[in-house]
Amino acid sequence: MKSSLFFIVTLMLSLNLQAQQSLYVSGTIKNDKGQILTSATVFIDGSDRYTKTDADGNYRFNNLKAGAYTIAVSMIG
Asked: DSSP string of 8-66?
């Protein structure tokens, strides 16, 4: 019984730790008039991670570690 309980608790802890490591940041980019911006480059300042907004102005960064991030946007045009 103790062996089964130990296995279940260990499994639950490992699932919990794995879930905490797969964080993401997402959002929608709009201009000052509230219009969505498609194909804008969104990047995490101080890193090499970047993405483009989709047709609805949405972006998402997956697999981030817990912490504070500065998100920057660049668009030509």
From this structure: HHHHHHHHHHHHHH-EEEEEE-B-TTS-B-TT-EEEETTSS-EEE--TTSEEEEEEEPS
Q: What is the pLDDT of residues 11-62, one digit of tens each?
A: 444 444 455 567 999 999 999 999 999 999 999 999 999 999 999 999 999 9
Q: Compute the radius of gyration of the chain from its Cα atoms.
A: 19
Residues forming beta bridges with residue 43, ordered by sequence position = 50, 72
Name residue 76's amino acid.
I
DSSP state, 67?
A: S
Expressed as residue numbers, the domain containing 40 is 23-77
- CATH for 71: 2.60.40.1120
